[in-house]
Design a protein that fits this description.
The chain is an alpha+beta fold. The chain is built from five helices and seven strands; from the N terminus they run E-H-H-H-E-E-E-H-E-H-E-E. It has a seven-stranded mixed beta sheet.
Length: about 180
């Protein structure tokens, strides 16, 4: 682990002044991923996600530079997170109440800082404070480095999901037990 790495947890209110920096890291991390990854689309995503009940961000800084972050929120009863799920899942799999599942929406590290343990540190810090029974995330099937990392961190495949938004890629759904119910 990098000795000068500083992790910090933020609520939506604390993160409002960081939006431009969050967008910069997003664009850097997705620089080679195609035209879908734009500042405008990501700003809209952040504007939709940050007001969610329980939204939480963990940032990683080296000196004063934001080098990565992870954020997510608990899925409420009205969640559309599971919309577009392709495969059949066990009864109750998509039932949400705001306490059952924490959705990890983005885990990003600037390209020049990748493969140094920063993503793992962010991941572990965020999930260590959560009280939900499980976490979920979506990962592109063609993102082999992320797939390998999630495998090694204990995430299990749970199907495929195609979001309804225009041009959204097909994702693999991953889940992982967290919180007090995992014992």
């Amino acid at each position: 682990m990098l000795e000068n790495l500083r992790l910090r947890q933020e609520t939506a209110a604390g993160a409002e002044g960081l939006v431009d920096q969050l967008v910069d890291v997003y664009l850097d991390a997705h620089a080679d991923d195609g035209p879908r990854y734009t500042a405008e689309r990501y700003e809209q995503q952040l504007a939709a996600h940050m007001p969610r009940e329980g939204w939480e961000l963990v940032t990683a800084r080296i000196d004063d530079d934001l080098v990565g972050y992870v954020y997510g929120f608990p899925l409420g009863a009205d969640s559309r997170w599971w919309d577009g799920l392709h495969e059949p899942v066990p009864d109750g799999f998509t039932d949400e109440d705001g306490h059952r599942t924490f959705a990890v929406c983005e885990l990003l590290v600037r390209r020049s800082w990748q493969r140094r343990g920063i993503a793992r540190a962010l991941h572990d810090r965020l999930l260590s404070t959560r009280r939900e029974q499980r976490a979920t995330l979506l990962v592109r099937p063609d993102n082999a480095p992320a797939q390998r990392a999630y495998d090694s961190w204990g995430w299990q495949p749970a199907g495929r999901l195609q979001p309804a938004r225009d041009g959204a890629p097909l994702f693999e759904v991953r889940t992982k037990p967290i919180g007090p119910a995992r014992r």
